[in-house]
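Give me the fold.
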Amino acid sequence: MLLTRNTEKSMRYAIASLLASPPAGSGFTNSWNVYGEDTFQDTDFKPNFPFVWVMDVRVPPMKTRLPMILIERAPVQSSLFEIGNRAGTYFTFNVHVFGRNRGERSDLAEFLREQITTFTLYDWTNTPAALQYTVDVDRRDTETNSVAPDIGAEGALNNWETVSFSFQLRS
């Protein structure tokens, strides 16, 4: 599997692992039931509370399918040359957090912003995934998004926040 897809799957794994087993002192005392695209598409599936969908694909959020976290990879940047690093591949992920209300949205976004300070890259070519290495996250930004009232009529887009994570992988 190539670097970009390995990185996307590693980000999804990092978020799902944090929610399934929140660290002590993180503000979340209970673990979340984390579901993916397969159960999201099944309209008959009934999730166990507390739950969240974590996906790295673009799907329209539905009011009955919140909270949801969508992972979007921004364009990959590479430096042609840098002292000590000939590859310089730089990734930014925009993690879109949709909540059922503003409190849930803000709590989930802030939890991710505070907890993801490092990023661990895995090679997902084989199962189980092989650990490659861990790097420090350079930037962690949060932005509250709003949409026009007619677009947010169903409520899915009314409580949306984006957390961005940027980091440079080793060569």
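The chain has a mean pLDDT of 86.
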